[in-house]
Design a protein that fits this description.
Elements lengths: L10 H5 L2 H4 L6 H4 L33 H13 L20 H11 L9 H4 L13 E5 L18 E5 L19 H29 L1
Parallel strand pairs: 1-2
Length: about 210
């Protein structure tokens, strides 16, 4: 997110200057340059909804507002993220605790049952050799890409890797962006071709089966 498109003007690149020049980026990324506050407001990182906390179902952070609430719901329902911080980390130690997560999620989303193995039991994500029509896109400048599917293991799924892509850089609210890198532009075109072909195949299959 904060490292796309790559270059010295990205938020991540400028934030790192604090270790070199005591550069003050406090709040600029979150609030915008003209609205930068004197103090960082932690409530900005608070997801919406009942019983919300800064420490959320995703130990790496869920983000604020409704978007953070949606992400936390996923982390409470199906996508259990075992993220943690050890004593050797630059962050405060914070081990993953399933008991804490279960209690927190029940308070946040009453009546919702945690199903941490649903992606395996219902969709077979532990073995994609028989899967079909799944498109994986990976920004290789996103640290999470190391845990993604980067190489094709099945001719019926598709993988597009973006060397210049960061976190969600291929899923922006506006496309194309004026500063999109060539790999993102080309990747969008490839994705359209792939998805269109899958839809055409499904339509053809439906027509054949209805005869």
């Amino acid at each position: 997110m904060a490292y796309y498109p790559p270059g010295p003007k990205t938020a991540l690149e400028r934030a790192c200057l604090i270790f070199k020049d005591s550069y003050d980026l406090r709040g600029e990324v979150e609030y915008g340059f003209d609205k930068k506050p004197k103090c960082f407001d932690l409530s900005f990182e608070l997801p919406s909804g009942p019983n919300a906390r800064i420490r959320s179902a995703d130990n790496s952070g869920s983000g604020g507002g409704f978007t953070g609430e949606i992400w936390e719901f996923q982390c409470c329902k199906d996508l259990i993220i075992r993220a943690s911080c050890s004593e050797k980390s630059m962050f405060l130690p914070q081990p993953f605790q399933y008991a804490w997560l279960s209690d927190h999620c029940h308070q946040r989303f009453e009546g919702v049952t945690m199903t941490p193995f649903r992606m395996v039991s219902e969709w077979g994500f532990n073995d994609l050799s028989h899967a079909s029509r799944i498109l994986f896109t990976n920004g290789l400048r996103d640290g999470w890409s190391t845990s993604s599917i980067l190489q094709n293991i099945n001719p019926n799924i598709a993988i597009i890797n973006f060397p210049n892509g960061a976190h969600h850089s291929d899923l922006g609210s506006k496309w194309p962006r004026w500063d999109d890198t060539d790999d993102i532009v080309q990747g969008h075109k490839e994705a359209i071709v792939i998805l269109r072909q899958w839809l055409d195949d499904l339509k053809a299959d439906n027509i054949t089966s209805s005869r």
